[in-house]
Amino acid sequence: MFDLTPEQVNIKESWFSFINDGIVTKDVVRPEILRSWQRCRNLIEPFAEGKPGLSNEKLLFRQSQNIEMIKIAWPIMQELGAVIDKSIVLLSDAEGFVLEVIGNDELLPVGICCQENVVGTNCIGTVLIEGKSMEIRAFEHFRHCLHFYSSIGVPIKADSSIIGVLSVMNPFHDLTPEIIQLVKYAATTIGMGITKKTEIDSILDCVQYGLFVIDGKGSIINLNKKSQEVLGVNDRNEVIAKSIGAYVPGYKDLLKVLLDAKQDKYEFQINNGIRDLHCSLRIKEPLKSAEQKEHSMILFTYDFESNQDSKRSMHTPRNELFSFNELIGESSSWVQVKDLARKAARVNSNILIEGESGTGKELLTQAIHRASQRPGPLVPINCGAIPKELLQSEFFGYEEGAFTGAKKGGAIGKFEMADGGTVFLDEIGEMPIDMQVSLLRFLQDRTVIRVGSSRSKRVDVRVIAATNRDLDEAISCGVFREDLFYRLNVINIKLPPLRRRKEDIPMLVNSIIKELGGSDNKGIQGISEETLAILQRYHWPGNVRELRNVIEHAVVFAEGQTITTDCLPQRFFQINLADESSDLRNQQLHIINKVLEEHNGNISQAARALGITRSTLYRKIEQMKILAEYTDGK
Q1: pLDDT at 485
Q2: Going by CATH, does the domain composed of 318-494 fall within 3.40.50.300?
Q3: How far apart are CA 522 and CA 500, in angstroms?
Q4: HSE value, Cβ hemisphere, 13 Å, CA-based, for 369
Q5: How confident is the model at residue 318 (pLDDT cuts 50, 70, 90)?
Q6: pLDDT tens digit string along 225-242?
Q7: CB of 200 within 8 A of CB of 194?
Q8: With contact defined as beta carbons under 8 Å apart, do 285 and 333 qualify?
Q9: What pLDDT is stored for residue 309 in this prediction?
């Protein structure tokens, strides 16, 4: 055992005092550490053994969701491990799950949850709560098994959001200031790498054709916004790391063409889950040379408007748009929304749809347009995804030579493209203030002037705008024009979040399971009552979009024909046992009873399934007066 300094002795004594009596008699514990201890007391067993990690399937899922961060962080972690003697280097995601480890992985292995309410004060979970870099020394850790380590945890930030934590743990001695600065620099470098990728994504989004970046094995490395629209996905991370073969039938022939430097012309099909789209290869370019083709990285663009009317081909045919009958739900709030939307479809007035992300604003817009008598197409525009410099040309088009890179012959704008139909302005609250002036002018006279031209053209366009922002607050802050708000807000439709229409969840779940269909469904027939009950208790911050992702995740991990609780993501079982509100106590009682029943009263197994310590589970059982029904099956 190493010799303790007087300060370490005092902290050690303070820790024992706090564990035994809940008080700290000596003024040696830092405020942030004391806050953490207070959060952990009566929640964490300080002498408990280690916690089980994620299953291989769930770990792989989390790693795939953070693949870009891992790619950037891994070589940096290896360097840190080589420089800092006897160190353990850890990378976690934004929820505290360890994704990668360099060094001895027995203490905190890959897949373990390091949230503070699971393992106590530590260099990952506590850093996520405090939102800042923290050094945690020896006896400052709440769990006794961590007392032999000093650690530093630094949040990894991309665009000011925490996306993970880089941590270094070292046994027996405090980390030097030089090491702490090195870890901070490493975390900053990783964050900058992610931010740089975001900048690259923005550049790719400027390409007007569909674009994919794949490796020599056919795995998708990146794609642009146009390809997202083609595939019908909102988040490009849903596609990254998948095989191009998931969307391109006969992709091996395409891959051969892409790797063949001699052949540039090729036609192929992309299946977006609704229909096959006819595409033609435009440009292919290796991003870097490699001796082996399977290690090549290839960028290629494609055109899916070939031999079609360019004004209509970008958009889904009217009979393939969502209809009101396909907007699932029978809750009173949802029925009111559909009734109001049906009435709005009969007129040509502007509509403003307000609602949280994932509530179905675009689907409602499709239903309104489909039910309207307008003969033209529905043209969607994501105001938050188009670079500020391109908004004017995207909206109104441009003439040949209007700017560097302008296409020969110019290009039609989205408003002109929608003549006779509907323009859907999604994320209208993200539109730059100077572009709002141009939109206001269009709403007043319904004329477009292409960039580089002086000629105006009148168009017949109905405008539907949508936002998840509070526009009243945006107006108060001076980032949204009040006169534009009143122009758009002729008919106002507010979509209820899923947590306020939970009675619709069973219908939505069954509809999603049926929609997934085919071979990917693996014959899934339904969902168990216990699993459905858990879904109905959840607060659904991501609304229906999150519900769809959860069901898709459950289908992937389902073993039989029924979705069970084991198929749900880990977050559905991370109970906040510190919250003693009446509603939550009832939820806890129900969940604990179900888990105990599933494990035949085995306390150890039930505690592991719940992600809590045995002592905590004993205490909760005793508080809820259900202890007599079970015996310890350890």
Answers
A1: 95
A2: yes
A3: 32
A4: 31
A5: low
A6: 888 878 877 777 778 778
A7: no
A8: no
A9: 36
| Backbone angles phi and psi of 625, in degrees to 5 | 60, 45
pLDDT at 338: 94
Q: What is the mean pLDDT of residues 360-380?
A: 91
| Three-state secondary structure call for residue 579 | coil
Rg of the chain (C-alpha set): 28
Q: How confident is the model at residue 348 (pLDDT cuts 50, 70, 90)?
A: very high
Check pLDDT > 50 for residue 358.
Answer: yes
| Domain 206-303 in the same topology as domain 6-191 | yes
* pLDDT, greater one: 623 or 465: 465
206-303 to CATH, choices 3.40.50.970, 3.40.50.300, 3.60.40.10, 3.30.450.20: 3.30.450.20
Right CATH for 503-629 from 3.40.50.300, 3.40.50.620, 1.10.3720.10, 1.10.8.60: 1.10.8.60
Rounded Cα distance between 347 and 533, Å, is: 41
H-helix or E-strand spanning residue 593 = helix 582-598
Which helix (H) or strand (E) element contains residue 149?
Answer: strand 149-158
- Torsion on CA atoms 92, 174, 190, 221, rounded to nearest 10: -40
pLDDT higher for 196 or 405?
196
Q: What are phi and psi of 192, to 5 degrees?
A: -65, -35
CATH T-level fold of 6-191: Beta-Lactamase (3.30.450)
For the chain, counts of helices (H) and of strands (E)? 22, 21
How many residues in the chain? Answer: 634
Instruction: Lowest mean pLDDT of 162-166, 169-173, 408-412, name the range.
Output: 408-412
- Token digits for 128? 């996520």
pLDDT digits (tens, 9 = 90+) for 182-195: 888 889 888 888 77
Q: Whose structure tokens read 């094995």?
A: 217
Cα–Cα distance between 138 and 149 in angstroms, integer? 5
Query: Do 120 and 40 touch, CB atoms closer than 8 A?
Result: yes
**CA–CA distances in Å: residue 394 to residues 89, 364, 574:** 46, 24, 45
Mean pLDDT of 489-493: 95
CB 537 within 8 A of CB 587: yes
Which stretch, 2-11, 127-136, 572-581, has highest mean pLDDT?
Answer: 127-136
Structure tokens at 111: 């897949």
Q: Mean pLDDT throughout 257-283?
A: 73
Are the CB atoms for 431 and 390 separated by under 8 Å? no
8-state DSSP, 99: E
Q: Is the pLDDT of residue 579 over 50?
A: no
Query: Taking the domains of the chain in order of start, what are their residue ranges?
Result: 6-191, 206-303, 318-494, 503-629
What is the model's pLDDT at position 310? Answer: 34
DSSP category for residue 213: E
Helix, strand and coil content of the chain, in percent to the nearest 5, comes to 45, 20, 35
Conformation bin of residue 532: beta by default, left when phi > 0, alpha when psi is -120 to 50: alpha
**Residue at 403: amino acid letter:** F
What does the block give as tokens for 580? 């003693």
Tokens matching residue 477: 């802050």
At 503, is the pLDDT very low, low, confident or very high (cuts 50, 70, 90)?
very high
